[in-house]
Design goal:
Layout lengths: L29 E2 L8 E3 L15 E9 L5 E10 L2 H11 L3 E2 L6 E10 L10 H15 L3 H14 L4 H17 L3 H14 L7 H17 L3 H13 L4 H6 L1 H12 L4 E6 L12 E4 L5 E8 L2 E7 L4 E5 L5 E3 L8 E6 L4 E7 L11 E2 L8
Parallel strand pairs: 12-15
Antiparallel strand pairs: 1-6, 2-5, 3-4, 3-6, 7-14, 8-13, 9-12, 9-14, 10-11, 10-13
Helix pairs in contact: 2-3, 2-4, 3-4, 4-5, 5-6, 6-7, 7-9
């Protein structure tokens, strides 16, 4: 996959000498959920972590709750690249962020924070490329165990810029694929998409990656996510040929979402963080209001649903069905447990009366952890 120059989209660390990357901070933010989020009135810039390898860059995606008085509570690191220093810096800054008091709970807010050294870090280093080509060679010769060892060593070494991180996660996805870990392959490709931007992967390769993610989501019956991915693909210039090739899968997707049968998305808990304070999780934006959990394998402990103006939670019990309130909008499900645990997230067709089907309304949580 051809990677091009990464430019700043979210958070830029500008004017920094390569020999001393912790100097002269200059940041910008891109905050998502604009239809939900309160107006920011004070957002302290996260500091660049100290003690990192020269030129190391990072990216953090964090979900949090905005309280009625405009303060931030209960951040959850959804994904990150670069190590725990970046995660800790974002968490520390979040505690001092202030928003215009909304007067009510705003539970589903996500901010992506990008730490990028502005000068001199727009390509892969020779050290990284040696490791990259070693992994490619192992895969070419079907030396899968050696490929796994090499990609794990590159991940553990860290210190990569975001250009290199995008390449690394693409390679991790390939290794997960040859090991038949479809869920792991999907998460690696999703992370590569998150770390990159429209200038880090050229248009053709971006479409190819979106197609791969879409196919994996269909294979794992993650139809709500597949719908979002397909929409992103259709927005890409020149995607008509790709979309046409996916016509049969799109019909399968439409049939599943419109049908009456339950949808069982296959899910895997993983740790999105490099820090001890991170929690293994799986997150999903459901297409339906009622859901249950099945095929539990390992410790799948609890769930939390963060919607526009509601926060809901409960302990996971197999084959018990929950129902979100009728007015719940823009919801994101978080499932917590042990790294590597798997399960099925089952979405059920809404009924006219939840009480008549024995569904349990998820308890509302007004007390923040």
């Amino acid at each position: 996959m051809k990677l091009q120059k990464i430019i700043t989209i979210a958070v830029v660390l500008a004017g920094i000498a390569i020999a001393s990357p912790a100097k002269a901070q200059n940041y910008d933010f891109k905050i998502f959920n604009t239809s939900v989020g309160a107006k920011p009135v004070d957002q302290k810039n996260p500091s660049y972590p100290s003690g990192l390898r020269r030129g190391q860059e990072g990216w953090v995606s964090v979900n949090y709750v905005i309280t009625a008085d405009g303060m931030v509570a209960d951040p959850v690191i959804v994904d990150s690249v670069g190590g725990h220093g970046f995660e800790d810096s974002v968490r520390a800054a979040l505690l001092e962020w202030r928003f215009e008091p909304p007067g009510e709970l705003l539970a589903n807010n996500t901010t992506n924070v990008r730490f990028e050294i502005y000068r001199g870090r727009d390509m892969a280093t020779s050290n990284f490329m040696r490791r990259y080509h070693r992994i490619v060679t192992h895969l070419h010769h079907e030396e899968n165990a050696e490929a796994r060892t090499s990609v794990d060593q590159a991940y553990d070494l860290g210190g990569w810029n975001l250009y290199e991180s995008a390449m690394l996660w693409l390679m991790i996805g390939r290794v997960e694929g040859v090991e038949d870990n479809i869920a792991g392959k999907l998460e690696a490709y999703r992370r590569a998409l998150g770390v990159s931007n429209t200038n880090s992967i050229d248009s053709e390769d971006l479409r190819e990656l979106l197609v791969k993610v879409f196919r994996l989501e269909i294979e794992l019956s993650q139809f709500a996510a597949a719908r979002t991915t397909l929409r992103a693909l259709k927005r890409e210039p020149g995607s008509q040929k790709d979309v046409t090739a996916l016509a049969d899968l799109e019909a399968q997707l439409d049939q599943a979402l419109a049908g009456e049968a339950p949808i069982a998305a296959k899910a895997l808990l993983f740790s999105p963080c490099n820090s001890d304070s991170g929690q293994p999780l799986w997150t999903y934006a459901p297409a339906r209001r009622t859901f249950s959990f099945a095929a539990l394998n390992g410790n799948v402990e609890r769930f939390e649903v963060r919607c526009e103006r509601e926060r809901l939670e409960g302990l996971i019990e197999a084959d018990k069905t929950w129902s979100l309130p009728q007015d719940a909008k823009n919801c994101q499900v978080f499932v917590f447990g042990d790294d590597g645990a798997s399960f099925e997230f089952v979405e059920h067709l809404e009924t006219e009366s939840d009480d008549a089907t024995g569904l349990t309304t998820v308890a509302r949580s007004d007390v923040l952890d």
